[in-house]
Design goal:
rod-shaped, transmembrane helix, alpha/beta, 300 residues, 3-stranded antiparallel beta sheet, Rossmann fold, VWF_A, VWA domain-containing protein, membrane, 2 domains, 6-stranded mixed beta sheet
């Protein structure tokens, strides 16, 4: 418990001392019995004074605004900013080596949709690339719209593979629209492309500055030295996909490594209890008035 206005208690106490001084005038009596008869020296004689004093003390306490503190906990999900970059080069229109009938893009879309269904509180953006990089949807919490955008992919492909442009576009989007301290970049590609040393250094530096967690999902990549050097330089994660079922496993692994984080905030919530002190003081004062005017009424 605390007193929110402690100084008022001191002011009220000083006023009480000033208004009701302790010194009393002396009145002489020739006999002690006569004094007892006049003063009514009985076990009940002091009760009115005690009641009045208790009531005044409670009023003084109410002036100081006593408050009762209670610890209150609140939980909230800490959202992430996630950019999903999918390869839409011509090679994604073909099935995996050793597999038949199902295109690599269809497997990637199915796994991406499962991943999106688990990110209810995160902000996710979608980009695609081939020779160029294209933003499909900016960072949003609307997973339904984003899922529809993923489902529509595949009507058009964009030539060969250029890994620099989608990475630059994603970093720019994080810089422009990112709000969360937790940033995740997921790049899925089945093609290796050279990345100049200057680009590798620039991309790695920007990722470290923004605190981005980088995941590369490589679809049957045989030689991906340049992009892997970027992954290693930012302490990212490379997930190798060789079989159809490994698409879903790769996204499930990312979901495991990037779980929804819960922040617990603790604060003290104070409840005013001065009304209780006021009511108790009024109760004592009421009893005092009743006794003074009935049972303990003094008749000259």
């Amino acid at each position: 418990m605390r007193l929110a206005s402690f100084y008022l208690l001191a002011v009220g106490f000083l006023f009480f001392l000033w208004r009701f001084p302790r010194a009393r005038q002396a009145v002489g009596f020739s006999r002690l019995a006569l004094w007892r008869a006049v003063s009514g020296s009985t076990p009940w004689a002091r009760l009115p004074g005690l009641l009045l004093g208790a009531g005044l003390l409670l009023f003084l306490l109410a002036l100081a605004r006593p408050q009762w503190g209670q610890v209150v906990e609140s939980e909230r999900l800490m959202a992430r900013d996630i950019i999903l970059v999918l390869d839409l080069s011509y090679s994604m229109d073909f099935p995996l080596l050793g597999a038949k009938d199902v295109k690599k893009l269809d497997l990637a879309k199915q796994a991406a949709l499962e991943f999106l269904s688990r990110r209810k509180k995160d902000r996710v953006a979608l980009m695609v690339f081939g020779d160029e990089a294209y933003g499909v949807w900016p960072l949003t919490t609307d997973m339904e719209i984003l899922s529809r955008a993923v489902s529509r992919l595949g009507d058009r492909y964009y030539g060969g593979t250029n890994l620099v442009k989608p990475l630059r576009e994603a970093l720019g989007h994080f810089q422009e629209m990112g709000r969360s301290r937790e940033k995740v970049l997921i790049l899925l590609s089945d093609g290796d492309a050279p990345i100049a040393e200057g680009d590798r250094v620039w991309i790695s530096q920007r990722m470290r500055e923004q605190g981005i967690h980088f995941y590369l999902l490589g679809v049957q990549l045989s030689n991906a030295g340049d992009i892997l050097s970027v992954v290693n330089s930012v302490q990212g994660r490379y997930l190798d996909i060789q079989k159809p079922e490994e698409f879903s496993r790769a996204f499930a692994e990312i979901a495991r490594l990037e779980p929804s984080r819960i922040a617990v905030a603790r604060r003290l919530k104070y409840r005013e209890i001065y009304p209780t002190a006021v009511l108790a003081g009024l109760g004592f004062f009421s009893v005092f008035l009743v006794l003074e005017n009935t049972v303990l009424l003094r008749v000259p």
